[in-house]
Design brief:
Layout: H1 3-10, H2 31-35, E1 40-45, H3 51-68, E2 74-79, H4 86-99, E3 106-110, E4 113-117, E5 123-128, H5 132-136, E6 143-149, H6 158-168, E7 179-184, H7 193-201, E8 207-212, H8 224-236, H9 238-244, E9 263-265, E10 274-282, E11 290-298, E12 303-311, H10 322-339, E13 345-351, H11 356-365, E14 370-372, H12 377-389, E15 393-396, H13 402-410, H14 431-442
Parallel strand pairs: 1-7, 1-8, 2-5, 2-6, 6-7, 9-15, 10-13, 12-15, 13-14
Antiparallel strand pairs: 3-4, 4-5, 10-11, 11-12
Length: 451
């Protein structure tokens, strides 16, 4: 046997390369976006429409092509808040890299947050628009693309006006232009700034404006479980479904909550035991009430309002001090817990701006309330509406809980602010309402809700 033949017999056979088919990854709906020569693309649409995953795939593909040619190519990725980067766009880019079988070709860092191609130094840079100085002072060079994710959550178009010139000025010499991409879910409010801004650029030959929904899934990526959940939204609250999944600007209306989605029950379900408890409090001052509620989460995912404490100082010449409220609230919570001795209280949520009662309670009982990280009213309301639209909220129909239902029934947008990009709620008799928002937001992960 010749040496050549022997060598051929002893060598490990090469593994066949896995063939990548972008047509199996990119929805046909997005072919126009994928191939566009326009410098600016705005992708809007409902949840689950694949606009963000498609954008991530396109950006990684662009870097891959540049790297294969030996060129350095940088991409800027921006969200409204730096705290949201890692769990969203950072992981989305990693997902796209994995899909293109390039995982080992990159280094991944979170401080500073970058993903860098080892051979060429091509880098994905991640920034929060809440730190504009980092955007305006950006000097990375060789930029081929910029991605603004969840663009509707930015403060306004001035963020783009101020940062885009900085990025475009640092264009890579190997591309004709820096590709700028915006992705977002349209706000309910037709007067929101982003709706008006997008309308202003429609028809501009430099801009591609595309709308997509989960119904554009021609590749069968949407799972049965996802479709079942979407069907729940559609059956329980069609308007909310139209906004969340179809990306429609449904308007606000004056009444905020659909009260048909607050389901009264006389007793807890015998076939669906409580798995844990939550409590939340909205603390009033002077003429404002203090409201504390206890909720149970069942094994099947129902959220049940169990009991409500409500103290209003209105009409009383002497108001209760934190030192008086603290033992009353504690006695209320303790009384509810004794009714469910085998169920653990896992979280106690309070307004982050409230310090007096929180400090008093810790002084009295050594127990810390968890201050919720509040957002704007519309965002906090969306958390609650998402829970309601899934048909999962119930309340024990008791006298103590009547104030909770009454306040939610009367909760409204301020009509004078509805034709603006920053609508306000009527701040009156909304104490259980605020407490409910705090609880849902603070426990969104446990309640299986997206932020």
């Amino acid at each position: 046997m010749s040496m050549t033949s022997q060598t051929q017999m002893t060598q490990t056979p090469r593994q066949p390369k896995t063939e990548l088919k972008l047509s199996a990854m990119v929805q046909p709906h997005f072919y126009t976006f994928w191939r566009t020569k326009r410098p600016y693309s705005i992708l809007l649409g409902g949840r689950g429409s694949f606009k963000s995953s498609t954008t991530a795939l396109k950006l990684v593909s662009k870097v891959k092509r540049m790297a294969q040619a030996g060129h350095k190519a940088n991409v800027i990725v921006v969200r409204e808040n730096a705290n949201n980067l890692r769990d969203s766009v950072y992981n989305q880019i990693i997902w796209a890299i994995t899909q293109l079988h390039m995982t080992a070709e990159f280094d991944y860092r979170v401080s500073p947050m970058t993903i860098t191609h080892k051979r060429t130094g091509s880098t994905f840079y991640f920034y929060g628009a809440d730190k504009p100085e980092k955007l305006k002072s950006n000097t990375v060079g060789n930029i081929i693309a910029v991605w603004y994710e969840e663009a509707a959550n930015f403060k306004g178009p001035e963020v783009f006006d101020q940062s885009n010139p900085t990025f475009i000025r640092q264009k890579s010499p190997y591309v004709d232009h820096v590709e700028v991409i915006w992705t977002y879910n349209p706000p309910k409010n037709p007067y929101d700034w982003i709706n008006e801004w997008v309308d202003s650029v429609r028809g501009d030959s430099d801009y591609l404006v595309d709308k997509s929904t989960y119904l554009d899934d021609a590749l069968g990526f949407t799972t049965k479980q996802q479709l079942d959940l979407i069907a729940k939204y559609k059956d329980n609250d069609y308007d909310y479904y139209s906004w969340l999944y179809l990306g429609k600007e449904i308007g606000l209306g004056t009444t905020i909550y659909n009260m048909d989605l607050f389901h009264p029950i006389k007793e807890l379900p015998s076939d669906d035991p409580l798995s844990c408890l939550f409590t939340s409090i909205d603390v009033g001052h002077m003429q404002s009430a203090t409201a504390c509620s206890v909720y149970g989460l069942t094994a099947k995912g129902k959220v049940i309002l169990l009991d409500t404490y409500y103290y209003s100082p209105a009409g009383q010449s002497v108001k209760k001090a934190p030192s008086e409220l603290s033992p009353e609230v504690h006695a209320f919570i303790d009384g509810v817990l004794k009714q469910y001795p085998r169920v653990k209280l896992v979280n106690m949520t309070i307004d982050s701006a409230e310090g007096a009662l929180r400090n008093q309670y810790y002084h009295d009982y050594g127990i810390r309330w968890h201050p919720v990280s509040k957002k704007d009213e519309a965002t906090m309301i969306d958390f609650v509406q998402s829970l309601l639209a899934q048909g999962r909220f119930y309340y024990l129909d008791t006298p103590n809980n009547a104030v909770f239902i009454d306040e939610h029934r009367r909760y409204q947008w301020d009509e004078k602010t509805m034709e603006s990009d920053n609508p306000k709620v009527v701040k009156k008799d909304d104490h259980t309402v605020d407490g409910f928002k705090y609880m849902v937001m603070d426990n969104a992960d446990r309640l299986r809700l997206k932020g």
